[in-house]
Batch of 4 targets.
Target 1
Amino acid sequence: MNNQPHILVIDDEHQILRALRTILTARQFRVSTAASGEEGLALAAASQPDIIILDLSLPDMDGVTVCRRLREWTRTPIVVLSVRDGEQDKVQALDSGADDYLTKPFSINELLARLRVALRHSAAQSQVDQKSVITAGPLTIDLAQHIVLRNDEPVKLTATEFKLLACLASNAGRVLTHGAILSRVWDPAEADHVEYLRVFVRQLRKKLEDDPEQPRFILNEPGIGYRFIADD
Amino acid sequence: MRRFWILPGRGGYLLPFLLSIASIAVVTAALLLMRDDLQIATIALLYLLPVGISAAIWGLWPGVAASLAAFFSLNYFFIPPYGTLLVHQSQDLVALVVFLVLTTSISQLVGRISRNLALARAREREATRLYELSFTLSKLGREDDILKSLAQHTLETFHAGRVEVYAESEPQPVLVRVPEEDGAEIPGRPTALVSMQGSRRLLGEIRLWRLDEPLEAVEERLLRIFASQGVLALERARLTASESRARILEESDKMKSSLLSSVSHELRTPLATIKASVTSLLSEDISWEEEARADLLAAIDEESDHLNMLVGNLLNMSRIEAGALKLKCRWNVLAEIAAVSASRARQTSPGHRIALDIPEDLPLVYVDDVLMEQVFNNLLSNSLKYSPANSVIQIQARRQDEKTIRVQVDNQGPAVSEADLEKIFDKFHRVTAADQVTGTGLGLSICKGLVEAHQGRIWAENLAEGFAICFTLPIHAGGEAPRMPDE
């Protein structure tokens, strides 16, 4: 049995494929590559990879469509790649089931961090007992008991603040789109009210962060959403 | 005053005849009272009065009718034997015939003169209207204005109930209707319709509705002249528009080539560093010290980031220039956007201290957060470039008044000469010589474009100790501030 995680890279640029194959193989991944959407879909079905890296601009079909078609039958984590200014595409891909995104050009450290989080998250989902206590620096968040400690001191949160924090923290390391957070914490009908999110995130930061202007735990991803950073 | 006197409308033809005969009847009645005191010659002379007046007022044919009526009245009432049309004395017969000839001639003469006078007046009015129209049209440059003015003038000149001007225009045909507020259904077919035939193709048509009477030949001719004036004005406007389009294209062409030459230079500079470093690392005839290796790799890393920012800026610049910038505005916390930008700047340039001074109670702003972040990125990158190492760069935001937020990014760099304060927002303008500082010279002009797209204003200021770029953002660009949900 091969223990190396199997990674499928779907991108039409051969230089990127070549570079990623070399780099990821050196990092103990098994790498398959596909240069088009159709080829990627076929390879994903045939080889059952552990994680998929998907470029959003493919020659034969829209990356968002590939994402949607993959999600029809598999929960394999997907990390999408896109250029800057493609915020709309990224949000669409994330809302159609992608787990995370990276903006080209990216550093390999960023890519590895995203892959690690996505793999861990999918592993956690398949287990019955999900982690119910999350720690991030001085913060301890007990999702089951609804308790938040900061330097072992309890932090008073309103019901909505806790719901928001729980939503972010249980997806630690992954980006969540504004729409996804709003529809989970408030209501799918409120998915457009980014202003709620802005105000409540600011309140949370004031209660949790050392310096709310230089947040360490709740990070802003302009045009996309928020990302909670927990301890590894 | 309508043309009632000379050329009465429908149903009005009979009235002048009746009036002229009535005038004879009145004069006859008056003369009958004095029949015995007056001689026939005097009576005949007195009859000339109503005949002349009738002809002068109502024209030739009512004048002739009056002269005939006068002839019979004279014969019947004043030439013996009274009460008959018989004439006994031959000198009376001669007098009667002379009278008839005289009155008819007078009425003809007077009638023609007054008709000519009326015609001359009508022509003068026509000329005045035409002059007014062509004068007004010559001052207008926009097609809409021309059509509106043409319709309004037509409405007034022809006393019409409604006028429509239809024009085949790009991208879609235009229909102008006066009076505007009249939303009622069009009453059937237009009374008159003339086409506006341009030099190359049909440009449109004028439709006119006048309920009380049809257009006369003279009026139809005038309407056609109006149409041709409209054609002239439209063609002139279109020619001017296409000329200015051509000029804009030419200028943007020039802009593009100067952009390209500057850009290719700017793109090659980081590429040169990358290429040199990589080929050094690849070369097998030398084994690099660990430190030198790290140096070369750091240079590659920095320069590729620089290249990435350059490409992003170029893309934004071309979008701003092409007017293709699409804002995705949402309610945002300005401090949050500035913080993302500040933390990125701290990573790339740990030597500087970047401070945020944004009050907690600053209202939400309705902006595109991705583009606004780029404004901060460019302003910070500019400050980092021009201010000394270990100095402080500050982002400050304040509510300036009810409607505006003022943001200031200041540094402890050198002052900029007054003349350059405005110019630094121009493309490719640099205060320092190009070889001393890297960059496209695009950063600040992009900031200007982005801030202005958010309906703000941007300017540069010299401070007591340092330099600042300030910009404003309207608070109510997204309408009233949003309501917050209940807990």
Note: The CA atoms of residues 166 and 172 of chain B lie 11 Å apart.
Target 2
Amino acid sequence: MHPEELRYTKEHEWVRVEEGRKARVGVTHYAQHQLGDVVFVELPGTGDRVEAGKSFAVVESVKSVSDIYAPVGGRVVEVNAQLEDQPELINEDPYGKGWIAVIEMDDPAEINALLSAAQYKEHIGEA
Amino acid sequence: MLRTIGVASVEELFCDIPEELRFKGRLDLPPGLSEPELLAHLRELAGKNRHLDQLVCFAGGGAYDHVIPSAVRTVISRSEFYTSYTPYQAEITQGVLQSIFEFQTLICQLTGLDVANASMYDGASACAEGLIMACAHTGKARVLVAQSIHPEYRLVAETYLRHQGIAVDIVPCAQGVVDLAALAERLGTDVAGLLVQHPNFFGHLEPVREAAQAVHAAGGLFVVAVDPISLGILEPPGAYGADIAAGEGQALGNPLSFGGPYLGFLSAKEELVRKMPGRIVGETVDAQGRRGYVLTLQAREQHIRRHRATSNICTNQALNALAASAYLALLGKEGFREAAYLSFQKAHYLEARLRELSGKPGGLSRRWDLPFFKEFVIQSAVPAGELQRRLIARGFLAGPSFSQVGLEPDNALLVCATEARSRAEIDGFVEAVKASLTE
Amino acid sequence: MSRLLFEQGAPGRRGFRFPICDVPEIALEDALPPESLRREAAPLPELSELEVIRHYVRLSRRNYAVDVGIYPLGSCTMKYNPKVDEEAADLTGFRRLHPYQPDETVQGALELMYHLERFLCEIAGLARASLSPAAGAHGELLGLMLIRAHHAARGEGDRSEILIPDSAHGTNPASAAMCGYRVVEIPSDSRGGMDLEEVKRRVGPKTAGLMLTNPNTLGLFDERIAEIAQVVHEAGGLLYYDGANANAILGISRPGDMGFDIVHFNLHKTFATPHGGGGPGAGPVAVSEELARFLPVPTVERLPDGTFYLERERPEAVGRIRSFYGNFGVLVRAYAYIRAHGPEGLRKVSEHAVLHANYLMRRLAPYFELPYQRRCMHEFVLSGKRQKERGVRTADIAKRLLDYGIHAPTVYFPLIVEEAIMIEPTETEPLEALEALAEAMIAIAREVETHPDTVKSAPHETPVGRLDETRAARHPVLRWTPKEQNAAAST
């Protein structure tokens, strides 16, 4: 449910660290379950600068709207354009095809402030 | 009931209201009336007005005396429609939902754009919200508004946009239409959109193609305010480059009713739909595959997005939209074209007959000799307010005068003729004008 | 299945004919630039009058309404719409008035508006009012503009925050944002009122105002309103009253006396003008004497000789928020309603509204959780928590109620109550209707215990079942399109 190798935030984002100071970001299984059927994703623009803790994307379900907060600061280098036509990927495959954006980190050390899988599980009461 | 609740009197139910906040005594209102007394009183009040079965209407300026088929009244008098609410429980309110879906479709068919919402308060606020959409879509904070739009629409746009920190620059008109050179001077890459009314407040056609090209070249959107009846013979906004078309739908089957309730409509290109305010109905299916309709894209609206909603609008003008739909359904393809065609013919006959009076005493002339649809501006030696009064004394209503809408000069007056005016009425009006000028 | 207008009719059919043109006809191209003309007629449907009437009558029969049954939507005040009000608005002397007729020809209309303004001010306990706003949200927007104007005039234009309770209707924060304000959300306390300590903590030099409904969206009267008003006023802010719940306090308490500076009323709620399937309404705004100068153009004034006129020159007005003067047809109905009831009648309205709500609350309390153990006012909120533990959500309960032929109450609002069910019966429902609603809800509560699947898969008895809202939002189809276009699109 919550892969061990990823890092997490209290606001239910996950981060996969990739080569070249890159951080791939999405929302957790718990988040997609709370949201219900995702109907629309407002993606950031490639090249946008983002700040850790600030909203950089928006996910809509039929009856709710959720801000997605950047777990780390940096520059958006890739966005998942597939989500435009298939927002349901967030529900179906939140850690895989449902990724939202890739951020090139200004300071990779910011990763250390994030939660481990165990800490995240505790946070959502699944420990 | 009191026993079930466990109190001795209704008074006890208000215990939470502190004594010092309780209103003592009776409200200072007139005592209640029975139904016959009430109707007698209201008839007396209504009787103090001169209405349009007593005055023949040649007034325009955003509110028009078009013909309303009797069947429209039948439709909106169904109390299953008018005593129902916003269709939040879709399964038992398919009637309203389907009628809104049809209204959205009809507006798209008229404007040639892709999507429309379930209605706005009126044409003025619909245009203001159209400009706000342009800002939300482009991320820019300045808009241009042609001076030739309805002065009240301009004031409403300024009022709305000022509070959102959006700058409004007015593009002057030259000789009764927007000045394209002045437009070019004011355009810039910081402009979110341009609002033009077509036909404009004075009744004239605007250079919409050129305006669209100019604002698009600068990276902005083209927002057009249209008279829906004009779309019976004029090209639709979608064909000449509009991104957003808004306007006043009163002329579509809604009575004049002293200015309200009216009907704002708003339509746009598909890519703008998520920035659109107001309710939108979409088609879907139930578990058995039966077609049905629901309120959709609700994540735009206030009840979900709250302070980040595209707009705060909740209640709209649903029943007026229903009247408009019934009107368009009754007139149909040919009848709608005819309403526009006949309005054009009656107004042009009026203009030709009034032209016979120019050169005669009274100094009557058209303020601008430009192509028009169903209304135009006249001026004379008589102040417009006075001319209006003299015409009323003879049984005719013309207007608005420029003074009524805060414009100058004070001898200019709008006159309008719709398909509802007979030749005899027009001839009578012309006689009345002639007599009023030499009074 | 119900066919759309566009799926009926035949080429050449007409539902209405105009007289033949009786003026000499000129060619369109002779008077208008040819490129401005439509090449093809707008592709509207082609139906006979009979087909149109049957279409709409059939649609109306697929529609629930107050005239069909009880409509217990909390915060909507779905009371009965007296038919005499319809007749009043239909009088030719009201219906056939052009807004640009000179004032002397519309003295009856202006007199009605003048007195309606006075009635609303008396009910609100305030000085002047604007009849312009077309809806409650429109009134809220105006109210916030007035707040802005007030502070700007005093050189305190940098007040940028509006305090709003977390139980507030979504239009409150949306209106604040539309007016350029930042929203500060104040939590509710365990009694359901605003947390006064939190209010004290959050007011300050940035506070422009506080927006409140009283009774609030939980149907509870905030007893400390006088204190809240004092705290906000001392900090230099203004108090705005959302009148959505005014049905509870007519003639019993007045927002102006509670300390509110600005009040909007929803005429389509409290004053029984019909909801129309979503509108039109009207949201007049009443204000204290001090704020009157900022009211938008136009206002209705009276000369010493008794004649009425529209005042268009208002130098300090916030501007204009709509064309013309207001939803006049709606104003006529509200005026008729107030004249019919008089002061005693209006008081009875509130007394019975509160009585009916408390009665229903007592009847349902054994079966549903009651988040606040207090007297309610004209509406009350239940929580479907107990039922959620059995796997049945409030949404399911709402849908099952439709099988009993009753419109569901408001659900999932206010946001601060889990699985919220908000019920407002109104004063116009007879005891039998209240009992029917109570019995249906109790039956459903029992069904949740014995065979919950029936509730979870509801509704079963309606023309369509639960509709796929996900599909409607993911792949929006927002208009009908002719088949040829559809075919072309899919190739």
Note: The first helix of chain B runs from residue 2 to 5.
Target 3
Amino acid sequence: MFWCQGFSEPEAGSDLASLKTRAVRDGDDYVVNGQKIWTSHTPSAEWIFLLVRTDPDAPKNHGITILLVPLDTLGIEIWRIPDIVDEGAFAEVFLTDVRVPVSNRLGDENRGWSVVRQALQYERVGAARWERASLVLDLLARRAQMSGRLSDPDVARRLGEARAVVEASRWMAYSVADERAKQLSGMATAYPARAAMVRAERLVAELALDVFGPEALVEGSFLDDIYRSSLTAGVAGGTYEIQLNLIAGQLLGLPRS
Amino acid sequence: MDYALTPDQRATLQAVEALLARRAGRERARKMRNAHDDELSTALLEAGFLDLATDPDAGPLEAALVTEAAAQQLAAVPVGARGLVAPLVLGETPPRTVALASADHPGPVRFGGDPELVLVLDGNDVRALQQVRGSTRPVATGYVSPYAEVDLSGGRTLRGAGALLRRWWQVALASELAGLLGAGLDLTVDYLKQREQFGKPLGSLQALQHRLAEAYVWVEGTRWAARAAAWHGDDESAAAAATYATMAARVVAPDLHQLSGAISMTEEYDLHLWTMLTVGNTDRRH
């Protein structure tokens, strides 16, 4: 079964907890109205993991509920958003009087936020972007070797540095997985792991452009894909800056401004 | 060097900006995507803005200022190649459209689809290819300008002109990047002033302010390095300008997307017009 995440809204991006999509109880159903945006892979998904507001008067983290909704439910409309990334990455989901049985609620009403936070923790390292960066780096190295550019010490040095950055980010992600497997919290360690993999992916993409120049521009070439998808690395699944905030606050214990 | 523009330079800049405001800009760029803007090229030529580099009353600095302004307004015309590089390499008025290429670095040539002249950097020499029409093949890219594969063999050899081409190409690159990154930054600053999250404008967050401020430093550095190189006209300042501009592009272009978030990765939002031109235009091996 293929799921998409109905999280972000036009006015709730980094500030996800301010989401407004409203669900009102009506007998055995919730009636949902609102809009989601940047919902990845919606066209191929069958179900949506939907965050809705059930108590508009509670503090924003305390009025959120999770509903599990089949995407073919009446009242759901999906619009693709043309993007410059070519991943089919973005869609808008419009919800108009969508009826969702109460039995499709995940967890308690108004208690969804802690579940979301946990889901986001998994997403932070769940997408194995370091592995993709690593495979891309293999290809770059092979190409550099074939084209003779590897004999340029500057190219060799930069490939080596990129390898180090990718591997460090891999080990950080593995340590998070290990903590979780051992039922340790594995929560806060996800932030630096995620930040490191964003840096790794960006570094590899820059390297591709630097070493291969105009060749990297051809549409559909893997070099071109790398650069474009690297633009999303620091935004998808929680921004790089949010990770830095969490590291500063939760790991370094710095005071809030 | 006097760092303030002279009244004549200011007048030239204002005049070309007025023309570009009418005939270039975002909407026009979207219409002209992956194409050469013949009308704009004609307008710029007729007004004399592409013949300043060898004009005794103007010079390379004026041509560089025009190049910067054209990039800012997303002109789909090879202004730097035609107005700055080619006249100074040839020592005469070039034909209407010029593309620049390098024999050492294969790949699609920007504005290579149908140029009347291609200047090929080939070691210490330059080869001038005329009438490449028929031997070019358009290449699809997402980098806004038109690109084509061009057979770079043959042509008239300008012996020893390689350094000259490299120098002015570097100045043109730096001038373009100054215009592109500057305009991209302006758009991003405006967006972060009005986009609210956590109950306040994103632009009020100090961490983001610092990133924007650093981008501003890169942009201003690029602008002044490009102008100084155009004024001095020596190899060293040209190389410094191109190097600085390339470093700036590497940091600033992805950062503008990062600071703007997902909206900036959509077609409907304009930022990519500037940033993709920046990426496509940056020859990182300068």
Note: Strands of chain A lie at 3-6, 22-26, 29-37, 47-53, 64-70, 76-80, 91-101, 105-106.
Target 4
Amino acid sequence: MNYLKLAWRNLWRNKRRTLITSASIMFSVFFAIVMRSFQLGTYNHMIKNIIESYSGFVQVQHINYHDDMVLENSFDFSIETLSDLENIEGIKSVTPRIESFALASTGSQTKGAVVIGIDPERESQLSDPQHLLVKYRITDKTIELLVNSKISTEIIKKVKEQLNESFSSRESVELALGLKGPDLDKWIVNILEFSKFSGKILSPDDDGVLVSDRLSKYLKANIGDTIILISQGYQGASAAALCPVRGIIKIPAPDLDNKLIYMSLPKAQSFYGMEGKLTSLNINPKDNSERNLPKIKAEIASALSNPELSVKDWKEFNPVLKQQIESDNQSGQAILGLLYFIIFFGIFGTVLMMVHERSREFGVLISIGMQRTSLAIILLYEMLLMGFFAVLIGIFASLPLLYYGNVHPFRFTGDLAKIYSSMGFEPVMPMMWIDTYIFWQGFVVALMVILSCLYPLRKIFTMKEVNALRA
Amino acid sequence: MTRPILSLCVLGLLFFKLSAQNATEIVKKADEKARGENSGISEMNMKIVRPTWERTVSFKSWSKGTDYSMVLITAPAKENGQSFLKIEREMWNWNPVISRMIKLPPSMLSQGWMGSDFTNDDLLNQSSAVIDYTHKIIGSEIIENHNCYIIELLPKEDAPVVWGKLIFWISKDDFLQLKNEYYDEDGYLVKSEIGKNIKSMDGRTIPTVYELIPADKPGNKTILEMVSIKFNAPVTNDFFTQQNMKRLK
């Protein structure tokens, strides 16, 4: 106990020295956490975009579907199966789907598209088309109307930058325009009014389609237009249909936004000639953590008890995303390792300075009969105390930033945004909110503090009093 | 001494020439029999067999020589009314559901016609077994109670064909093609066609069932069954138009 008291007093004896050393530890923790938070937040965002609100964390498929994604590898769908699955405790939503390809055309423009047959009601729990529906699109007409209504040129310039952009909520329009204060309040109503876009989502047995934003622009298909779909259906049947466009949806993942078409399930079944069949049941569990997935998968498999069906989690049916995240994570960890390296020498440098400063003090203490071990223990306590508080302060200092970055994700604009989009990423870098990673960062830094204690301890045990006294 | 040897050689050459002539003659006769000389109208059922499922498509077809042909799908109901027009080396597809005429692009040539094992290319590029190949009898065999010549066809150097070798089994009495095997340039079997169910139709004895078996896809085959055929039916060139594709019944 006395050791601890002495250590505590030693720390306060030279406040400035303590402050410098603990500041170096504190910033280390802060930076390590912020960096890791960006990395993990981005992965989480990707998983949320692509898995949680598009494909589901778990899918029930025909046993051969994964290896050969053809419509023949579909399965018979009964409403009983669906309700059986929905009754499982840990399951949040079950969404039936048919997924296949078709050539979409408006006559002059043609493009390959992913056609997804959805149950519009259940789909609201997964990708939520209502939420994705484009409600505002800034067109030449919008700008013309704004010019006519004597709006300031500065605002028109900002609106022009967003020409041909689509938005699915008022908030996203405000965010993209970056207007503030009175300007915003005064003009946003006009801007919204002039860019209004009137789509609706599908009814349960709709024969129309929802087209993703970028695809609709490529096809030059507007609401009410008819698009031609041609494909090969179930068992080689030819599939062709004329479908009116009911609405445009904006998918956050640019890659999907280029090629997605939503169709009502009955329409998709008749289009592909596969009445009563599905290619997948997309399931989101209530707890989608890594630990819980195997358990939920086992529960689903036992509820199905059908040897023709297999249950796959997202890492199995979307290995591309998994690898993308893994490889990025590895390079992220390498950079983090580099950061640790720099941090370590930062801490070590201040410790070195401290020992040098205090070597006369140590010499005196040993000369007047203090045990070297006692001195070493006191020094260790000092470092640990300082390390503990500095790490704690570092963690708390990072929290406001984490919170802000989590709620208001950092958004790229301009060319950088285009580069990100063209690579298939949404140009957003959100931060991860509090999770175990924070304590790991704290732990690693604390470990480095202990590691940098080795030098002063060795110094104490090998020190020659005579030399030390002269220092 | 030299004279008899020389004459023997001449005789041998003559003999070889004769047998070659013979093989060509056989292929020519069989080819004429299969094609129906000038024009024809037929109704067929095409059964597509896959390891886990089967599907039957019925169609009516009109043809004139090798350059003109028209096909109208009559069943299943969902595909009824679709028609295909082939003029020389081009092909169009009319789909009444979307009211669109589609010209088959070159990229679609290697795809299966109506989901079958027949590729669009098979239908378009009918090279001539008579003109484009050299013929040689390499044996005989009995297939389905018919004594057949086995004839090997090797493509001529400048012939526009994709095959490395063909082997035909042609019956000795009726000149019917009972089995054809197609080999690629490396000598691997690509597909075989088997003619079965020999019957008399419109005054000719012909195999009325054709099976197409791709060699590299076990369990897959396409069975073409002739329901009716009229040889030398009156079909004129102006029947084969895009306008007519939409009117066919």
Note: The first strand of chain A starts at residue 58 and ends at 62.
